[in-house]
Every structure is written in structure tokens, then in C-alpha cells.
Design brief:
Order of helices and strands: HHEHEHHEHEHHHHEHEHHHEHEHH
Structural class: alpha/beta
CATH topology of the largest domain: Rossmann fold
Number of strands: 8
CATH class of the largest domain: Alpha Beta
CATH architecture of the largest domain: 3-Layer(aba) Sandwich
Helix content: 40-55%
Length: 392
């Protein structure tokens, strides 16, 4: 996409984590907090007057020797890539780090970060694996503890008024991202999957106020654009955390059109807004939203997540799924067989890829994507094949 506003998003990603916005904020005495999981309520950090940014690893596969010396090799390469960046002082500007105990990789990453990277403020939140009134209360107490610790560390009071203002800003961002995804439902959308990921990455790497204004400007251009993208098949990407648009581009270069996705760095990040019920406290509203948002593969039961994936398949007219699982990402590796059984009923083939974090798509990956596309095209001319679709 050749657009001045789109290139702003790309520039943020190319310079992350030392972006112009972060540098300017630090020069003026601002605080920056990194978060490690989408179950961390960004609005609370924002209401404290700090900038929440997502801690991610290198944007391409990289030697991880220092991180490998601390984390077992069977820890996922996302965790090791993040730690490598921390050990190399790429996140030296952080004033705090907040994590969720959502998997072994995240938990061990947090432990080693605290010991060796030594960001001044640190807290990990216990995240229940299912939703009911008792788990909501537990998670609410975790958020309340985070609020108290932020207030103590920063020497401030986080008011309900500030929380409600932050919730409005973040809900606006979610609404704008939903508008962006609505455009991808079109038979020939004006934006590719790879381009969408540039926008998504920037969304958690810069102040939301600036991001919202940029995205509004981009949407105005896209909604009247004559640009149309098409492909051999409409695809959906699911699986582990993904921050590399080059991986999506490698799929689209083979003729696939990625029209939607189910990742913690995409749909699950923005899917549900914070809704306040009556006059309840903003903290309780945050707790409910983050615990009941589009579920991660770690959550139980998995049926709620599969229903939402099925809805995405139907809404975006998905013809095939690319499942990219980072090696040793246990939640998504265990979840995949169940998901395959579910989508098989819909006649949707699944391409299962074991990759490393930051991969841009090897020749082998490209060959397997081509096979998936050929399978989909063959099923169009021979409907009997659709009921026999298999994973590849």
C-alpha cells in the first residue's frame, strides 16, 4: 500500500521498540510499561498516566544465544526472543513490566526478566482458566492489586474518572479495528492481510490517542479506495502469537488472500469492548471484559472459542485455515486436534505449520501453502472432495 498514513504505521514497526513516540515521551518524563499478555488490562496502566506497550521479540528469526543460556530450549522461541531483546537492552527505557501467568513460557520469561533485565516495577497476574462468578472475583482482586501497586510505585491515585476515560479511548480503538476488519469481508478487500498486520502491530506500540487518529484517517481512505485485492482462496490464520507481517505476505505471495485471523496479536486483541453494567466500578468492568474476551486456547471449555472461530469462518467466507504454531507452544499444540475436528464438519481444510517465532515463510512453507490452495481449488470443481478435505 502506497499511502502516507499507512507508512506511518510501518515506520513505527520498523523502529520499534525505540520509536519516535516512545523517545519523545521519555524525554518529557513520561513512564512506559511493557505488558506480556492480552489478559493484562492496558486501560489501568493508561489511567495511571503511563504508556502501555506490548513486549514482543525480534521481527525476524534471530540467534538467541543469551536467552538460551537462561531459558530451556523447550521454551517457545517467542519467550526466548523477548528475553534476548531484554538482555540486549532493547527495552532499557521501560519503567515497569506486567505479565499474566497464562502459560509456562510466559511465566518463566517473567521470572528471568525480573532477575536479569531488572525493570524497576514488575508484577504478574494470576489468570483463571475458566469464567464463573468466583473466578471473576479472583481476577478482579488481581486487577485491584495491580491498581494499588501502580499507585504506590507512581505516587498517584487512579480515579474512576481516569479509568472511564481510558476505557473510552481503548474502546474507540477496538471499534476502529473492527471497522478495518469489516472491509476484509468484501469479495475483493482494499487491504491485504500483511498490510492489516502492520496496523495491528502499531496498535500496541504507540499511544492509543495517536493510533486512533491515524487509523481513522486510513479508514477514510480505504472506504473510498478503488484498490481491490483478490486471491486463489480466502484464508484464515490461527495459532500462536504472530508479529511478523512478512509471514502473512509469504502466504499471499503464493496466491492466498488472508481475510481474517484468530491470534492474540489480532482479533482476540480487539474483539470485545469493555461494557459497564449499571453503576459497577470500572475495575469490575475491566475484569469481566479481560476474562471473557475472545478466549485463548488455554481457556476452558474450548467450545466457546470454537463457536467464535466458526463465526469468523462464516462471516469472512473462509475457505482454508493456516495454523501456525510456534514450536513448544503447548496451549495451541494441544488445541489443534480439537479444532481440526470442529472445522472438518464445515469442510474447511487446515494447513498445520510448526514454525519459529519471527519466521517469514521458508520454501517448505510456501510449497505447503501452494498445496492447500490447490486442494481448495480442486474442491470447487469437484464438490465431493469438500466432504473429504483433510489436513496437510
Amino acid at each position: 500500500m502506497d499511502s502516507e498514513v499507512f507508512n506511518r504505521f510501518r515506520e513505527v514497526n520498523n523502529t520499534y521498540p525505540e520509536t519516535q513516540q516512545i523517545k519523545e515521551l521519555k524525554i518529557h518524563g513520561g513512564k512506559v510499561f511493557g505488558w506480556l499478555c492480552t489478559y493484562v488490562p492496558e486501560e489501568l496502566i493508561h489511567a495511571a498516566g503511563a504508556l502501555p506497550i506490548r513486549i514482543t521479540g525480534f521481527k525476524q528469526e534471530t540467534e538467541l544465544d543469551e536467552a538460551n543460556a537462561h531459558l530451556y530450549i523447550v521454551s517457545c522461541s517467542f519467550s526466548r526472543s523477548c528475553l534476548q531483546m531484554g538482555l540486549k537492552q532493547h527495552y532499557r527505557f521501560l519503567d515497569g513490566i506486567v505479565a499474566g501467568s497464562t502459560c509456562d513460557g510466559a511465566r518463566r520469561l517473567f521470572d528471568h526478566w525480573c532477575r536479569y533485565v531488572k525493570t524497576p516495577f514488575s508484577q504478574i497476574m494470576s489468570v483463571p482458566r475458566k469464567y464463573n462468578e468466583s473466578t471473576l472475583e479472583l481476577y478482579y482482586q488481581e486487577i485491584l492489586d495491580l491498581k494499588k501497586n501502580l499507585e504506590s510505585y507512581l505516587g498517584i491515585s487512579i480515579t474512576d474518572e481516569a479509568l472511564l476515560k481510558s476505557i473510552d479511548i481503548y474502546n474507540k480503538s477496538r471499534l476502529l479495528l473492527r471497522r478495518l476488519y469489516e472491509l476484509r469481508k468484501q469479495p475483493e478487500p482494499p487491504i491485504t492481510g500483511a498490510e492489516t498486520f502492520e496496523v495491528l502491530n502499531a496498535s500496541f506500540r504507540m499511544p492509543k490517542e495517536i493510533f486512533n487518529s491515524w487509523l481513522e484517517e486510513l479508514l477514510l481512505k480505504l472506504e473510498i479506495s478503488n484498490v481491490k485485492h483478490s486471491g486463489k482462496a480466502r484464508l484464515m490464520v490461527i495459532g500462536s502469537v504472530l508479529n511478523n507481517p512478512a509471514f502473512i505476505k509469504s502466504i499471499e505471495d503464493q496466491g492466498g488472500l488472508v481475510v481474517t485471523d484468530e491470534l492474540c496479536s489480532s482479533v482476540r486483541y480487539w474483539y470485545d469492548p469493555v461494557v459497564r453494567e449499571g453503576e459497577e466500578s470500572p475495575l469490575k468492568s475491566l475484569a469481566r471484559r479481560y476474562l471473557t474476551n475472545f478466549p485463548c486456547a488455554r481457556m476452558f471449555p474450548s467450545t466457546d472459542r470454537f463457536k467464535l472461530i466458526t463465526k469468523l469462518i462464516q462471516d469472512y467466507k473462509v475457505e482454508g485455515i493456516v495454523s501456525q504454531n510456534i514450536r513448544y507452544c503447548v496451549p495451541y499444540a494441544h488445541d489443534l486436534p480439537l479444532l481440526k475436528d470442529r472445522v472438518k464438519e464445515l469442510g474447511i481444510p487446515v494447513l498445520a505449520l510448526d514454525i519459529e517465532y519471527g519466521t517469514s515463510g521458508s520454501g517448505q512453507v510456501q510449497t505447503r501453502v501452494q498445496a492447500l490452495l490447490e486442494m481448495i481449488q480442486a474442491s470447487r470443481t469437484n464438490p465431493d472432495l469438500r466432504s473429504q478435505q483433510r489436513s496437510i
